Amino acid sequence: MPVQFAAKRLSKELQKISNSLPPGIMLVSAEDLEEWLLDIKVLDSNPLYLNETYRLKFRFSSTYPIEPPEVVFVKLPDRPIPIHPHIYSNGIICLDLLGAQGWSPVQNVESIAMSLQSMLTGNSKNERPQGDEEFVRGNRLRPRDIEFYYHDNDV
Amino acid sequence: MPPPNTPEVGVAAPTAATQPQDIHLPQQASPHASSTMANASQGESPILEIDYQSIEYLDPVDDTLMCPVCKTPFHSPITTPCGHTFCAECINRALESQSTCPIDRIPINKDRDYARLPLIIKDQLDRLRVRCPNKGCDHECPRENLEGHYDRRCEFTPVRCPDPGCAKLTARRDATADKGCLHVDIACEFCDKIVVFTELDAHYDADCEGAMTQCPDCETTLPRHRLEKHRTKDCPDLHIQCRWQMAGCKLAGKRRNVEEHMSSGCSFEAVGHLMEQHEQDRKTIRDLNSRLSSLEFSRNRRRERRDRRNNNNTTTPNLDGTPPSPDTAAWDSQEDYMLAQFERLEAQMADLRKQTQELNAHLSTSLVMHTSHVSDQLANLASQVGVLHMHTSWLMGVQRQQQMQTQARTGGSSATGSSGGEEAAARPGPAAPASTEGGLRHQGVVRRGSDGGRENRTRL
């Protein structure tokens, strides 16, 4: 499989999102076709996320878009990790869309950012996932190698 | 070429049947290409396939024609059983990791048949205007013509270096035997860098420092090798004449002035258009004239040949297949001889065709004649079988009736038995006469059965 497949698709996407992005999603940097940073905001008045901006880091492998990119929240002084029962405090996101099973090559960076936006919008629980501390302390795996168990379908 | 619905490896693109195969198998293209090309070097088949994901589309493409996986207009698309369309390459890749449709996740079997793509989509894709992907080539064409241009005509298509010992690629226009291998290092004539000859153009464009020059007219600084193009096309201060010079416009001057003059409407423009049209028409007439004269010439030659043959060969063309000797004086050239042979063979063909037709007609009439007899007999038999069927069913009815009556009689006679108390009550007096009659009939049937069918029929 030629490596350029991912590069071509990503440059197409980059061209598109540098021109226009849905409200609440901003492209921060995309210096190469391996790692992009985006900011997302929750647009409605959900008190958990009001007036906050979150930083997302996308990492693409050469198998993108056949395989999902690695997407995590990044913690910076002005960019916290959003509180959510599916988001660990180290920024790792438990979302089936980002796993090998839930992923589909028709998804793209924009659709992922929008899914995360709506995942935050729809949340009302001010809590971290079960076993967060232990996971954050013990985990040395990269997000794509973690076997998530998608136990909860209503959040 | 396999039928469109039998994928060989993974999913075969159904439209491959309508597309030239050589883009996928470049080596197959070579005999075809070299036969169509007088120049052997131009027939050199390309090594690289067109990268459809990178070609430039001249107009914006409708979103419905974009593959959802690679986000470019479909290339050899296929439609899944659930009705979604993807490039063959994209869906094959997606199925490698997950055997479901990327859009609705309906399971897809790789070896199953795929719906043929509606031709209307293929037409729409074929019509998209694209630019040739080769660097240096400005050719624009509908997408369906791109492969022909790329494979056979484009001067910039990378082909194998003419030196068999060199594994590199070179543009088709440079791949001639007399130029030899161009992958040699040379010193740039404008700066001191050493570059590979084929990359000289790129070097001038990108990093050559000494290659700049000034246009003598407009004093713009530009790469030296661009100067000629600049002067013929762009330089605003070059002294040129109005385009409608031949129509009588006397204006001449710097390009920018002349261009302004033309865009504001040269008064000779209308005449100029007419003259152009006229010139075109005259050219067409000349072409037609030359074609006509060549046609007449060949017709005359043919007629002469025929006359001569008729004089020489008064008998009808021999159908036994022995050609006349080629070195007879009647044929003044081998070409004529071959043509004559050809005509003779054509006549034979026509004769044979006529004979075949006659034979066919004969065969079909005889077949009809024979089979009509047989079918008459068949109809006869069928009617007899029908009669027999009626007889049999009548006889069976009779027999059934008799059996019932026999049962009734035995029931009546055993009425005094240990178990027949109620039966006796159920069958009152008339049972006896009925049973006697039944008994008679029964005997009759038995007798008839042993006597055979003849008496049977007479009794009916």
TrEMBL record, chain A:
Segments crossing the lipid bilayer: none
Record key words, sorted: Ubl conjugation pathway
PROSITE patterns assigned to the protein according to its UniProt record, in alphabetical order: UBC_2 (PS50127)
Pfam families linked: UQ_con
InterPro entries: Ub_conjugating_enzyme, UBC, UBQ-conjugating_enzyme/RWD
Domain (UBC core) ranges: 5-155
Protein's name in the database: Ubiquitin-conjugating enzyme E2 W
Native organism taxonomy: Eukaryota, Fungi, Dikarya, Ascomycota, Pezizomycotina
TrEMBL record, chain B:
Molecular function terms from GO: zinc ion binding
Keyword Transport attached: no
Compositionally biased tracts (Basic and acidic residues): 448-460
Entry keyword set: Coiled coil, Metal-binding, Receptor, Zinc, Zinc-finger
All residue ranges annotated as the TRAF-type domain in the record: 202-250
Compositional bias of kind Low complexity: 399-436
Domain of life, per lineage: Eukaryota
Membrane spanning residue stretches: none
Ranges annotated as TRAF-type zinc finger: 202-250
Composition-biased stretches (Polar residues): 16-42
InterPro entries linked to this entry: Znf_RING (IPR001841), Znf_RING/FYVE/PHD (IPR013083), Znf_RING_CS (IPR017907), Znf_TRAF (IPR001293)
Annotated SMART domains: RING
Domain RING-type: 67-105
Coiled coil: 335-362
Pfam families with a match to the protein in the record: zf-C3HC4_2, zf-TRAF
Region entry Disordered, spans: 1-42, 296-329, 399-460
Identification of the protein by name: TNF receptor-associated factor 6
Organism: Staphylotrichum tortipilum
